Amino acid sequence: MKILVSAKRVSDPNARLQVAKDGKWIEGDVEYVMNYFCENAIECALQIAESQDGVETVAVGIGDEDTARFIRQGALARGIDRGIYVAAEESEIDSDLIARIYEGVVHRERPDIVLIGKQAVDGDSNQVGQLLAEYLGWPQATFASKVELQGDEAIVTREVDGGLEVIAVSLPCVITADLRLNEPRYASLAGIMKAKKKPLEELEIDDLDLDDADPKVKVVALSTPSGRKAGVLVKDVDELIAKLRGEARVV
Amino acid sequence: MIDLYNPTEEHGALRQMVRDFAEREVGPQAAASDRAEHFNVELFRKLGDLGLLGLTVSEAYGGSGMDAVAAVIVHEELSAQDPGFALAYLAHSMLFANNFYHNANDEQRRRVLPKVCSGQWIAGMGMSEPHAGTDALAMSTSARRDGDDYVLNGAKMWITNGAINDTELGDCFLIYAKTSDNRGRSLSSFLVEKGRPGFRLGQKIKDKLGMRASPTAELVFEDCRIPVTNRLGLEGESTVHMMRNLELERLTLAAMSLGIARRCLEIMNQYATDRHAFGQSIRNFGQIQKYLGDSYAQWRAGRAYVYDTAARLSLESQGNRMDSDGVKLFCATMGKDIADNAIQVLGGYGYVGEYQVERLWRDAKLLEIGGGTLEAHQKNITNDLRRVGVLR
Ligand SMILES: Cc1cc2nc3c(=O)[nH]c(=O)nc-3n(C[C@H](O)[C@H](O)[C@H](O)COP(=O)(O)OP(=O)(O)OC[C@H]3O[C@@H](n4cnc5c(N)ncnc54)[C@H](O)[C@@H]3O)c2cc1C
Fold first, then answer.
1. How do residues B123-156 score in pLDDT, each as one tens digit?
2. Considering only CA atoms, which of B325, B329, B297, B304 is closest in space to residue B5?
C-alpha cells in the first residue's frame, strides 16, 4: 500500500504579518511553521504504516524553495519514507492548480490513499482535497477525525455540524484530516538526523504534464484586520443583559 | 534559516522540536513544580524518547552525536520555559553523560550510556563538597586503592539529581575524588551507582531560592567500595577531565540565561503595550523604554557571544576557558538583570508568580553561583589573560 501525504508550510499564525507594498502578498521576515492539519495527516499515515506491513509513505510539498526543508523536517524526520518537492511560486498558485499538481503526482505515484490537511491555516481555502477527488474521479472523505482501514475500504468518521458521520469509501480515495484525528508526534533527534539521508525528489510543474497549469484565482487585495475596539466594563449582570439585548441584539 | 544560531538545517529542526515540546509540555508544569519543589521525572524521561538526553554522546552508545551549538540550543529552549527543569537536564546530559562519554572506556560506555541516554537511569556529577567549592582541588573526598577496589570516603554537596525525590538517590554519578596529594595529578573520577554499600543520600537540600524544579542533595560515602573497572581513565588524570567538561558546563549554563532573558523580554514587551497609566500605554514612558531597550541590546549581545563561543568549542579538547568563563560571566548577570527589569516593568504584577518573571528572576540568580561563581570567572579570565599579549 502507498499513502501520499501533504507537507505544506504556512506563515506562523502567531506572527504579525505585513502586507506587501503591492497589496497582494505578505512581506518581511515571515516565520513559517508546518500546517497543523498536514501534521495530522502525516501522523495518520505513520500510524497506518506502523499498524501493518508493506506501507510506503510519501510526503508531497508544493511551493518556494524552503518547502523542501518542511518536507524533510516536518515529514521525513517524523518517519515518512520519502518526499516529493514541486517547485512553485507561492504567490502565483491557487487551490485549483495545487489540486492539479497533486493529480499529476498521483498519476506518477499511483497511491492507494491521498491524505491531506483539510485546509491550510494561512490561506484557509479548504478546497484542494475536494478538487483533487473530483479530478481523479475518486471518492473523498473530508474532515476526518478517525480513519480505519478494512480490506479495500477506509472507514472514516467525519466531523459534521452537530455530530459525527461514519462513512466507508473504497480505495483509492482522498481523505482530508481534521484536528481531532490524532495528536501529532514530535520529530525525534534521531529522526531529524535520518531525514537528510532519505530520498527527496525535486520536480518542476512542467515535469507533471498537466493539461491546465494556469491559476484561476487572482489576489486583488490583502489587508490586515482592523484593530479590535476597546471593550466596556459593565457594573453588574443586569447592565450586561441590557447591553446584550439592546446593543448587541444577541439574546 | 541558516544563521549563527541555527548553523545547519538540523540545528534549526532541533530548535523547533525542543521549542514545541517545551511550550506544550514543559512550560505548563513549571510554576507548580517550582512551588512544590518537585522534580518531574516522568517529563524528564520523555527527553530520552526525543533523543535529547544523550545529545553529545555518539549514536553507537544510544546518543545523538551532536555538538556544542546543539547543546546551547536545547538549554536555551528548555530554560525559556523552566530553568529548573533545564538544570536537571544539564546535570544529566552535560555533567554526567558528556563527561562520561569522553573519559570512559568502551566497556564502561556500553554498560552505562544506553541507560543514561534513554532516561532509564537519572545521572549527576559530584565535584563540590561541603567545605570546597570554588577551590575544587582542595576537595577532601578520597579514594584509596585496595586490591581490585577503591575505597571511597567523604561527601559531595549541592549535587543536582543527587536525589530524584525526598528519599531516593539518583541512579548513577560521576564522582571526583583524591587518589594522591600530588596537586595537578591528585584527582581521579569514578562511576558510582545507587545501591553500592557505603553510598547513601545525605541531606536533601530544601528551600532553595530558585531552581526548585531540580533536585539537589548531599551524597555521602563511608568506606564505599568501587571496583577499579569503575575508574574513568587513568589514576590521577581527572583534573584534565574536569577542566574540559567545565567549559561545556559553563557554556550551557550561559545558554540557560539566554532562555530566561528572552522569555522575560517577551513578557515585559507585551505588558508594556497592554498596561495603561496616565492615559497611555506605559511603553511611551522614557524610563520604561530604558528597561526595554537596554534589555534587548544586552540579550542580543549575550546571545551572539554564546553562539560564537559554541561554534568554536570542541567537545574533544580543552582550550576555550577564557570564553566559556566569559559567556557565563556576562550572561548570568545579563539574565538576572533582565528578569529584574521585567519585574520592574510589571510593577506589582511582576512581584507575584502568575506572570512567571518572579520565578525566572529567582532561577536566574543561581547562574551567578553554580558551575563557578562570578568571582571564579573573573579570576580565571584574568589568569588566562596574563598569557595573551595582543587580542585579536
Ligand atoms: C542549586 C545548585 C546546584 C548545584 N549543582 C552542582 C552539581 O550538580 N555538582 C557539583 O559538583 N556542584 C554543584 N553545585 C555547587 C556549585 O558549583 C558551587 O556552589 C559553586 O562552585 C561555589 O562553591 P561554594 O558554594 O562552595 O562557594 P565558595 O567557593 O565557598 O565561595 C564563597 C564566596 O567566596 C568567593 N570566592 C571563593 N574563592 C575566591 C577567590 N579565589 N577569589 C575571589 N572570591 C572567591 C566566591 O566567589 C563566593 O562569592 C550546585 C550549587 C547549587 C546552588
1. 999 999 999 999 999 999 999 999 999 999 999 9
2. B304
How far is the alpha carbon of A46 from chain B, nearest alpha carbon, in Å? Answer: 17
Paired with B187 in beta bridges are B178
First-residue to last-residue Cα distance in chain A: 54
CA-nearest residue to B48 within chain A is A188
* Distance from C-alpha of A122 to C-alpha of A222, rounded to nearest angstrom: 13
Same domain, B100 and B67: yes
Range of the domain at B80: 9-121
Q: Model pTM? A: 0.91
CATH number, domain A2-248 = 3.40.50.620
Q: Would you give the DSSP letter of residue A245?
A: I
pLDDT in tens, B70-113: 999 999 999 999 999 999 999 999 999 999 999 999 999 999 99
Hey, what amino acid is at B41?
A: V
Residues of chain A predicted below pLDDT 50 = none
For helices B321-346 and B238-274, the axis angle rounded to 10 degrees is 20
Is residue B1, in this structure, part of any structural domain at all? no
What is the rounded CA–CA span in Å between residue B147 and residue B145? 6
Domain stop point among B213, B235, B257: B235
Place of cell 441590557: A242
Taking only residues 24 to 83 of chain A, the set having a beta carbon closer than 8 angstroms to any beta carbon of chain B reads 69, 72-73, 77
Residue with CA closest to ligand 1 atom 25: B133
What residue spans of B313-356 are helical by DSSP H? 321-346
Q: Is residue B4 part of a domain?
A: no
Specify the CATH number for the domain of residue B138: 2.40.110.10
A189 CB within 8 Å of a chain B CB: yes
pLDDT tens readout for residues A92-126: 889 999 999 999 999 999 999 999 999 888 888 89
Name residue, grid cell 475518486.
Answer: A138
Neighbours of A155 (CB within 10 A): 14
How many CB contacts within 8 angstroms connect chain A with chain B? 41
Coil/strand/helix, residue B281: strand
Q: Find the CATH number of the domain harbouring B278.
A: 1.20.140.10
Mutate to test the pocket of ligand 1, among B34, B89, B93, B128 (most ligand atoms within 8 A of CB): B128
Domain count for chain B, please give it: 3
B60 and B193 housed in the same domain: no
A103 neighbors A136 (Cβ within 8 angstroms): yes
Question: Of B101, B121, B141, which marks where a domain is finished?
Answer: B121
Q: How far apart are CA B370 and CA B249, in angstroms?
A: 10
